[in-house]
Amino acid sequence: MTPIDSDSKKYWLDSKKNVDKIWYTLVGICALSVLADFFYHKHVAHPVEDLIVGMYGWYGFIGCVFLVLSAKLLRRLLMRSEDYYNETDDD
Amino acid sequence: MIELPPGIILILGAFLVPFLRGNLRNAYMLALPLIGIWSLLTITEGSHFSMSIFGYGLSPVRIDSLSLLFGYIFHIAAIISIIYAFHIRDTVQQMAGLIYAGSAIGGAFAGDLITLFVYWEGTAIASVFLIWSSKTESSYRAGMRYLIIQVGSGVLLLAGAIIHFKQTGSIAFDKLGLTGLGPTLIFIAFGIKAAFPLLHNWLTDSYPEATITGTVFLSAFTTKLAIYALARGFPGTEMLIWIGAIMTAFPIFYAVIENDLRKVLAYSLNNQLGFMVVGVGIGTELALNGTAAHAFSHILYKALLFMSMGAVLYRTGTIKGSELGGLYKTMPFTTGFCIIGAASISAFPLFSGFISKSLIITATAHEGHWIVWAILLFASAGVFHHSGIKIPYFAFFAHDSGKRPEEAPTNMLIAMGFAAFLCVAIGVFPEYLYSILPYKVDFTPYTTTHVVTQLQLLFFSALAFGWLTRTGLYPPELKSTNLDFDWTYRRLIPNIISEMGRILSVLDNMVRSMFINRLEGFIAGVFRHHGPEGLLARTNSVGASVAVIVALLAIFVILFFLNY
Question: Does the predicted model carry a pTM greater than 0.80?
Answer without folding.
Answer: yes
